[in-house]
Design a protein that fits this description.
The structure is a single chain. The protein has 154 residues and is an alpha/beta fold. The protein has one domain: Rossmann fold (3-Layer(aba) Sandwich), CATH 3.40.50. The chain has helices at residues 13-27, 50-58, 75-78, 87-95, 100-104, 131-149, and strands at residues 2-7, 33-38, 81-84, 106-108. The chain has a four-stranded parallel β-sheet, with helices on both faces. Helix 1 links the parallel strand 1 and strand 2 (33-38). Helix 1 packs across helix 6 (131-149). The longest helix has 19 residues, at 131-149.
């Protein structure tokens, strides 16, 4: 299983999701590939925002080694699931889709938590108080994704 999380700059929401999912995958001994990207090129090769690192570390998730990168159409070939953190990034990802198969890989992240609501994860960049609720929402959604996508044992 290969999962990609995508937000705008790849320094707040998507690296948090990346780190949370990596921790969950390791905890459950799954051989999954997890990554994150941004639809913009604003923060290529930069570490996640210090506030994102701080809140992640508070909950036992170290994202300090992650580096920002830009989403590209090649990601459709590399990943099974591409989760957009909000509607704007969802649309930007779809603009790079080459065919229906690419489109079918893209989901709005929070639709796993609230099916059909088409709600985006708030961008905490401009409000420090949002980092904790954003982390908790991402964590809960990643747990659901793990549950939904994990191999079922009989």
């Amino acid at each position: 299983m290969k999962i990609l999380f995508v937000c705008l700059g790849n320094i707040c929401r998507s690296p948090i999701a990346d780190g949370v999912m990596r921790n969950l995958v390791a905890k459950h001994n799954l051989n999954w590939q997890i990554d994150s990207a941004g639809t913009s090129n604003y923060h290529i090769n930069e570490a996640p925002d210090k506030r994102a690192q701080k809140i992640s570390k508070k909950y036992g998730v170290d994202i300090s080694d992650l580096r920002g990168r830009q989403f590209s159409s090649i990601d459709f070939d590399e990943f099974d699931y591409i989760f957009a953190m909000d509607a704007s990034n969802y649309q930007n990802i779809l603009k790079l889709a080459r065919n229906q198969q690419d489109i079918n890989k893209v989901e709005l992240f929070l639709n796993r938590l609230e099916p059909g609501m088409n709600r985006g994860v708030q961008d905490p960049w401009y409000d420090d108080a949002l980092f904790e609720p954003v982390f908790k929402e991402i964590e809960k959604t990643c747990e659901l994704i793990l549950r939904d996508l994990s191999p079922k044992t009989t």
